């Protein structure tokens, strides 16, 4: 029978003895709430969710798979219920900035969370997992209006996000991307091209999915095929 017991003692050994998370947190006033008591409580709750809710869906989810019907993807039984519990538990917002609805805890705590949830059920964890890249992109490059519209919902988890990079002729070498982004007068872009292999690109866990699309602007550098390799 499949079993998973979150290795809390090992994770705490890494946090306390190997990487000295608390020594680092002390240097940042915004992380003052990340005390050992709070971190322990989060690790315990995360272990419970991973072991009791995600692990049981691991094999059944693989056996059932997703279904695609008339443009709609239905995830395996139990995936949506677990996702709703994940959102209600505030797990998506754990280590994202407070100003957009996050709990503002250190990103290193998010790594412990991803380790437990991903080990219990990697397929399920891909759905909320891809959102983090979308959130970081909007956080770093988005306008205030985009942050207000997209980031708040991605942070609470009511929407998920993707990364649309790969195309049929290129994955590793993204310099060959052909998808075009042509600017309109109102600040929007018309995007044309084909993307493949987009994880969580369609599903029934949320009402909306935000796609971050890598595309070439009209004035983008032409692809030359030259690589510069750095060998230390
Ligand atoms: C489960 C899964 C989920 C994915 N999710 C996403 C997603 O969410 N969004 C997204 O955009 N993409 C996604 N991808 C696509 C993934 O990023 C690409 O498959 C990956 O980047 C490799 O690209 P490729 O398939 O075109 O292979 P290629 O780039 O053609 O590589 C084929 C082989 O050639 C080797 N190779 C390539 N270039 C070089 C080089 N210059 N020197 C030496 N060796 C080289 C590679 O190591 C590999 O062994 C996903 C793929 C998988 C399998």
What would you say this structure looks like, in words?
The chain is of the alpha+beta class and 232 residues long. It has a single domain, classed as Butyryl-Coa Dehydrogenase, subunit A, domain 1, CATH 1.10.540. It is 44% helix and 11% strand. The chain has helices spanning 8-18, 21-25, 36-54, 56-64, 79-88, 107-120, 122-141, 144-156; strands at residues 67-69, 72-74, 159-164, 180-183, 189-192, 208-213. Strand 1 (67-69) and strand 2 (72-74) form a beta hairpin. Helix 3 runs parallel beside helix 6 and helix 7 runs antiparallel to helix 8. The chain is globular and about 55 Å long. The N and C termini lie far apart (47 Å).
Number of domains: 1
Q: What's the order of the H and E elements?
A: HHHHEEHHHHEEEE
Structural class: alpha+beta
Number of helices: 8
Strand order in the largest sheet: 1-2
Number of strands: 6
The CATH class is identified as Mainly Alpha
The radius of gyration is: 20 Å
Q: Tell me the helix content.
A: 40-55%
Within CATH, the superfamily carries the name Acyl-CoA dehydrogenase/oxidase, N-terminal domain
Note the main attributes of this structure.
single chain; 232 residues; Butyryl-Coa Dehydrogenase, subunit A, domain 1; two-stranded antiparallel sheet; two-stranded parallel ribbon; binds flavin-adenine dinucleotide
What's the structural blueprint in terms of helices and strands?
Elements lengths: L7 H11 L2 H5 L10 H19 L1 H9 L2 E3 L2 E3 L4 H10 L18 H14 L1 H20 L2 H13 L2 E6 L15 E4 L5 E4 L15 E6 L19
Parallel strand pairs: 3-6
Antiparallel strand pairs: 1-2, 4-5
Helix pairs in contact: 3-6, 6-7, 7-8
The structure holds flavin-adenine dinucleotide (FAD).
Flavin-adenine dinucleotide binds next to strand 3.
């Amino acid at each position: 029978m499949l079993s998973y017991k979150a290795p809390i003692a090992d994770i705490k050994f890494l946090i306390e003895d190997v990487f000295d998370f608390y020594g680092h947190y002390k240097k940042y006033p915004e992380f003052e709430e990340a005390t050992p008591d709070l971190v322990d409580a989060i690790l315990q709750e995360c272990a419970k969710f991973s072991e009791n809710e995600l692990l049981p869906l691991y094999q059944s989810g693989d056996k059932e798979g997703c279904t695609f019907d008339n443009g709609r993807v239905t995830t395996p039984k139990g995936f949506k219920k677990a996702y709703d519990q994940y959102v209600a538990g505030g797990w998506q917002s754990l280590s994202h900035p407070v100003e957009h609805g996050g709990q503002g805890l250190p990103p290193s705590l998010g790594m412990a969370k991803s380790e437990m949830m991903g080990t219990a059920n990697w397929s399920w964890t891909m759905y909320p997992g891809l959102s983090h890249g979308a959130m970081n992109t909007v956080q770093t490059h988005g306008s205030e209006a985009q942050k207000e519209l997209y980031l708040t919902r991605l942070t609470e988890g009511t929407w998920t996000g993707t990364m649309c990079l790969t195309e049929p002729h290129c994955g590793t070498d993204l310099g060959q991307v052909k998808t075009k982004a042509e600017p309109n007068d109102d600040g929007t872009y018309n995007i044309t091209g084909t993307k493949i292999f987009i994880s969580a690109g369609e599903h029934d866990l949320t009402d909306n999915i935000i796609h971050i699309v890598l595309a070439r602007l009209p004035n983008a550098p032409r692809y030359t095929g030259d690589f510069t390799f750095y060998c230390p």
